[in-house]
Amino acid sequence: MIYQRQVLKQSHTTAHLAQTMTLLSLNTFELKQQIDSELASNPALEIVEERRCPHCHRVLPPDGICPLCSRPNTNDPTEPVVYISPMDDFFPKRDYTDQDYPDEPISPVTEDLTTYVLRQIATELTKDQQLIAVHLLTNLDDDGFLAVSLMEIARYFHIPVSEVEDVQRVIQLAEPIGVGSTGPNQAMKIQLEVLSEAGLVPEYADEIVEGHLDYLSRRQYAEIAKILGIGVQRVERIAEFISENLNPFPGRSHWGSVRNPSSQETSVYQQPDVIIGFMNDDPKSQMVVEIIMPFGGILQVSSLYKKAIKESEGESKDAMRGDMDRASLFVKCLQQRNHTMQRLMTLLVVTQRAYLTKGEEFLEPITRASLAEELGVHESTISRAVSGKSVQLPNRKIVPMAAFFDRSLSARTILREIISTETKPLSDTEIQKRLDERGIRVARRTVAKYRAIEGILPAHLRQSL
DNA sequence: CTATGGCACGGATT
DNA sequence: AATCCGTGCCATAG
Question: Is the whole-model pTM more than 0.70?
Answer without folding.
Answer: no
